[in-house]
Amino acid sequence: MGLNFFVGLFIAAISCTEIFGIISLMIVNAAVFHIITGLGTDSAIVWHGASRKITNEKVFSFTFFSALFQIGLFLIASLFFYRLTHKLLLSRQNYFGF
Fold it and tell me: Would the CA dihedral through 45, 46, 48, 53 be positive or negative?
């Protein structure tokens, strides 16, 4: 928690206000998107990993495939948002490179 504060101060010191605002917006949007797409998998991994009822290999494969699912869902949502608004999902900046 304290490290995040000092990293934020460092980024604010080396960047201008506009760039710091974009970085902050990207972090907040990514955190909200992670909460929505996580679908409780973080808690499930910790719960089942700590209970030792399933093997570590199964916990790892579940973690790997849930991460792939989240990445795929993010790419689909980003593409859909870009097609709708012509802006990027996390930073809300215009980007015409696609």
Answer: positive
Nearest CA-CA partner of 74 in 92, 89, 94, 95: 89
State the pTM of this model: 0.65
**From CA 16, how far away is CA 12, in angstroms rounded?**
7
Evaluate whether residue 66 is within a structural domain: yes
Answer whether residue 92 is part of any domain: no
- Containing structural domain, residue 67: 2-85
For the chain, 98 residues long, give each residue's pLDDT as a single digit of tens.
578 788 878 888 888 877 888 888 888 888 888 787 777 888 888 888 888 888 889 989 988 998 899 889 889 988 998 889 888 877 778 876 65
